[in-house]
Amino acid sequence: MVPADINLYGFFKSVVLLGNMSTSEEFQVLLCAEAEGYVRSLTPFDIPDIGSVRWCQQHEYLEKLNMQAVISASKKGDEFVKEFFISFEKVPTLIHDLVATEIWKKKIFPEIVLGDREQDIIFPLYAVLYHEAIVVNLLETLLFHQEVCMLAQDLIVDLIDYCYYKLIYLSNFQQNDNIQMEMGATKGICLKSTLKELEMQDQKLSFDIAMKSVSILSYVISHLSVLPLACTERILNTHDIPLLLVQLLEAAPWKTEKSREIFKYEDSAWRKIELAENPLLVKHEGQVWIAVLQLLVSTEYKMKYELTSYKKGILLRLRPYLTEILIDQIPALIELQYYLDHLAVLDTPAIKKELIMEQVPDTRERIMKTYEGHWTNIAQNQSQSFFSASSSHYKSWASRLAETYSSDAFENLIAGPPKCAFCGHLATKRCSRCTSEWYCSRKCQVSHWSKHKQPCGLLNVAFSQMNIGKSDL
Asked: Which residues, 6+ apart, have CB-to-CB distance to 464 below 8 Å?
């Protein structure tokens, strides 16, 4: 039987946030031997196999490996998950999985939604939509380490391209849309609108994934000295990441205002801040500044960057941002300030181009070429074979995921008593409809309802559909 109290939305979202939480000393998701078996078994899957029995099994493995990796890193304990990814050289498998899942979300998911499918497939579809976030979160944890980055092999350029597209998305992001979805009042959910609500949740998640990609790219840049020269060329000149980072700092997607209140994206959530806190950097903003510093000030990279008058003008737009308050937070930025001051009074230097054998990413191109013109057929086959509530595969998968995503299992990851979702005080009461949120009083629950209404409705629909045919499980 699938338990009715599974916290689907809260669990998925909170797993992505797990790296920012304190964890209990005793709890572990996986034993060392289990993690070894899980990592050893990881294999690349192509688009038609996403949602299959074997893919679902690997999805569960990656979810648990992700949680264990974050727990180990946050506790500064034995990072055996990282060591197994190094030993079995499975980092390229993760990157392939990331690219394939992103393509599935762009090409297959819309076809399933447009196909007017039955509404009781929300649970497996939701899991696939969040699969990209799971892999991104795991890569963010692993790629902090230089030796893991080196083992990405030829797929490191595919990862650079992936992050490049995510940064473009962030540079053009409309903050008010996201803040409205996450913090504003929304209409309730009915059964007929479930797939549309899934699309909205996917849009919200896309922002979270893109912000994780900022961290991943910052780690890759910090490890450039041990990566192939083609990576440096791709970052500096093919994609011109320095200019893109300038645009990102100007767009500041991690900050927005609503109703004269300031919100910043920190710890994977939008948080209201006081006016006095406005000059303080959030994590991703600091990572972008450090990446700019490394690419422009380091002699090794500065001499390889093809600087033109146009690029010079864009780079100099950073000068007004380099205030005393900013430099106090990242003192090394004084070197960037000196570099820009020097650049402003000098002519654009001539760049000596070196002959470089460019390493071209082929994972995305190969997948797109292989299945071009077949997206609709793949979506139809997957809808019938993998995402049909009448199939035994769907029921068994829902049961297994329910065990993985159970409230009890997740709550073991979080130390301390629950806090009220509205005021932050200690909470003793739960939302009886979805069991996702905690409150200290009825008053706080009523005040928070406008924000909680949408996810609560989505959870309620998901739980109802998960119990279809539960007597057969």
From this structure: none
Inter-residue contact 235 to 221 (CB < 8 Å): yes
Instruction: Write the CB contacts of 391 (distance below 8 Å, at least 6 apart in sequence).
Output: 385
The per-residue pLDDT for range 38-82, each reduced to its tens digit, is 999 999 999 999 988 899 889 989 999 998 998 888 888 889 999
For residue 25, give both structure tokens. Answer: 């000393």
Residues 6+ positions from 306 with CB-CB distance below 8 Å: 236, 237, 351, 353
Provide the pLDDT for residue 459.
Answer: 61
Tens digit of each residue's pLDDT (9 = 90 or more) over 349-378:
666 666 666 777 889 999 999 999 999 999
Contact 209, 13 (CB under 8 A): no
Helix (H, G, I), strand (E, B) or coil at 351: coil
For residue 313, give the 3-state DSSP assignment: helix
Using left for φ > 0, alpha for ψ between -120 and 50, and beta otherwise, residue 187 falls in beta
Q: Around Cβ 46, how many Cβ atoms within 10 Å? A: 16
Q: What are phi and psi of 439, to 5 degrees?
A: -140, 155
443-452 contacts: CB < 8 A, separation 24 or more? 444/420, 447/422, 448/421, 448/422, 450/184, 450/185, 451/183, 451/184, 451/185, 452/421
d(C-alpha 291, C-alpha 337), whole Å: 14
* DSSP-derived 3-state class of residue 267: coil
Q: Which of 187-191, 255-259, 386-390 has the highest mean pLDDT?
A: 255-259
Confidence of residue 143 (pLDDT cuts 50, 70, 90): very high
- Helix, coil or strand: residue 77: coil
CB distance 16 to 204 below 8 Å: no
pLDDT score of 22 more than 60: no
pTM of the prediction? 0.80
pLDDT at 254 over 50: yes
Q: Are 132 and 202 contacting, i.e. CB atoms less than 8 angstroms apart?
A: no
Indicate the pLDDT class of residue 258, thresholds 50, 70 and 90.
confident
CA distance 27 to 292: 39
Of 127, 128, 199, 140, which is closest to residue 166 (Cα–Cα)? 140
DSSP 8-state assignment for residue 224: G
